[in-house]
Amino acid sequence: MKRWLFSILLVFLALGAVTVRAQDKLEIFSWWAGDEGPALQALISRYQQLYPNIEVTNSTVTGGSGVNARAVLKTRMLGGDPPDSFQVHAGQELIGTWVVANRMEDLSGLFQSEKWATVFPPGLVALLSSKGGIWSVPVNIHRSNVMWFVPAKLSEWGVKPPKTWDELIATCQTLKSKGVDAPLALGENWTVNHLWESVALGVLGPEGWSELWTGKLKFNSPKAVAVWDTFGKVLACTNSDASGLSWQQAVDRVVKGDSAFNIMGDWAAGYMATTLKLEPGNGFGWAPSPSTGGTFMMLSDSFGLPKGVKHRDATLKWLKLLGSKEGQDVFNPLKGSIAARLDSDLSKYNAYSQSAAKDWKADKIVGSLVHGAVAPESFGSQFGTVMEIYLAGKNAQAAANAAQAIADQVGLGRK
Amino acid sequence: MRWRKKRNELTSFLVLLPSLVLIAIFVYYFIARTVAASLSDWGRDPSQALALNPETHFIGLDNYRELFTGVIDVRFRQDLVSTLFFTAFFIAGCLLLGLLLAVAIDHRPRAEGLFRGVFLFPFSLSFVVTGTIWRWLLQPRGGVNRLPTMVGLPPGEFAWLTSRDQVWRFEWNHLPAIVLVLAALVLLLMALSAYRARRGRRAVALAAVAAGLLAGALGAARGLVLLPFPELHGFNLAFVGIVVAAVWQMAGYTMALYLAGLTGIPIELREAAIVDGANDWQLYTRIMLPLVAPITLSAMIILGHISLKIFDLVFAMAGPDNAYTDVPALLMFITTFRGNQFAKGASIGVILLLLVALVILPYLRSQLRRRGRA
Fold this sequence. Notes:
The complex is a heterodimer of chains A (415) and B (374).
Chain A: H1 2-23, E1 25-30, H2 37-50, E2 55-60, H3 67-78, E3 85-89, H4 92-99, H5 108-113, H6 116-119, H7 122-128, E4 129-130, E5 133-134, E6 137-138, E7 140-143, E8 146-149, H8 151-157, H9 165-177, E9 184-185, H10 189-214, H11 222-235, H12 247-256, E10 261-263, H13 267-275, E11 285-288, E12 295-299, E13 301-303, H14 312-323, H15 325-335, E14 338-339, H16 351-362, E15 364-367, H17 377-393, H18 396-410
Parallel strand pairs in A: 1-2, 1-3, 9-10, 12-15
Antiparallel strand pairs in A: 3-13, 4-5, 6-13, 7-12, 7-14, 8-10, 8-11
Helix pairs in contact in A: 2-15, 10-11, 11-18, 17-18
Chain B: H1 2-38, H2 46-49, H3 62-69, H4 74-106, H5 112-120, H6 127-137, E1 166-171, H7 175-196, H8 200-223, E2 232-236, H9 239-263, H10 267-275, H11 280-291, H12 293-308, H13 312-318, H14 328-337, H15 342-373
Antiparallel strand pairs in B: 1-2
Helix pairs in contact in B: 1-15, 4-9, 4-12, 5-9, 6-9, 6-13, 7-8, 9-12, 12-15, 14-15
């Protein structure tokens, strides 16, 4: 009899434990699998140390820069089943899709209580804000406008890293005469757009670039059409098999000495340092993309708080960890990015990241087009069509007109 | 007796009911939903695109007008052209190769069963697997292009999937005229076959309609201008690799279809032909092939609707962003889930449905009619 009662008690206790556990859950939705998985896992482990009662579900959908994850997220959100917190490129990719549709909660309160307004640079907070609110917590920072090269090869050829696009085009001729057929390495489609944004930033300057996205500077104005002219000259320096190469294979061309330069985001530093085991500074070198010195074109992964989530408190705790100095310094050295905060512990980072962090503090900050910071998805996803129009006929005016037509259609800069 | 018949009818109805209900909901209701979405402006206003209860407005056929005549939907028009070229080459390749393989196996070579299995094997793979394998094989600097070096020749130069060349270009503004001329040609062919079947009146009527269409085509070429600027479309050579992979996968299946037809031909017919002194060539061209003609039609229908809807093979081989290998199904996915243009994505879906219906409906009609006669 006693044993019988005891077992019933035990069963009830077990059930109780299960229900208590079930109340505290957190589902994180991201595309960080593969190489980026360990960085996310380190964050989750830290979270579980802090809050052992909360059960974390890590929902990842693979596919670079979230191509598949974003489609899954949209079906879930439309179906009224939002994950507690989802990864999204900071800026317009979040604002243009989710904030305008009134699906996100304003995080201004969180920014105030955690005193984040002072630790994140004002240029970044401006990109995260719209309609008087701040909409996501940035976890990491990557830089888009970086030019990569191998210093030893450059001195062998007797050239210096060019500081402007004109210099690059001149250097390109010098290198071609020395038998380097394609001095600038290029990869598949999106890397072409990536190159374009560095050219555009260089030609327009940081103010002109920002005005493109507020609608102040039209794509078909003479100043913006000039971007395509320079872009055409830069393209003449690139390899003909580009569209068959991944971005890693384009970097490989530089490392092997088939090409001299490559414009790529600073995940390339992680690839060369970790995968290819090259020493930053010696095995590979870097400089800002030509004509963009003093400007930091950033992209950032961030997490927000959708309206109507099931576990709001657990999500807020997650967001607090993401924005904290500790959380950022756990995640970023593993991811190969730098902290969005200005007060991170630089001794934990490698030589490239330390130099990027220095620029992050000193430079003017602008957002990337290809990686979702300055333009909504409706524009970004159609920019590839603009590029195809340009590549098909090399007609700068036609491409500029198409870009403006899309900008008008999606209401770019219309707040 | 009568009661029993009624009961039979009732049970058959009840047994069919679940599938009828499910098909009504999951096929026809969703087709209706898609058509309705394609006539709305869902996605034009970003603040409504992904709202919890999107507020949309009826805008008629404006999405379709944009797809065919809008400045920024040039990619859709090229995709449509690409998919038609792809379909033509894919069907032709499968039929030709399938027939050759079937005839070869019909000759009962040694290890016939083994060969049949080998040829049919690719069909059992998924398109994603086929696409991944062929993407590796078709790398410009490796795989197929390195084959000639094994016999001492220079490596191949063709860029396969990364090729950006286009051939057989035509002006999009000439499209209405081209479509009318093609329709007139089809009608003329029908008139010819009616004439051969000694149905003179029908032949004359068809020929008259064809002549009318031709005249219309000439008029339309002047009157109807789709775009205010010239726009060239053609066959992207990057598709050659995709055609090769698709034919590799489906030719075995076509062979199986033909083989079934060939083995179904009574042996007496062959023997009679051989007794009459027919050689191998005559035997196949005069006796066997005409008898498997209905199989050719079925194979064309099956292959045709596969190729019009193709998505996974292209996605695996060239990725979603290679505009030179883009097809409408892929563009539909990108437009909808990346660009948030839900209404426009739905329009592309409806156009695909119409294209497939164009292939399937005549077939269904002839099948039903045949069954009605039997």
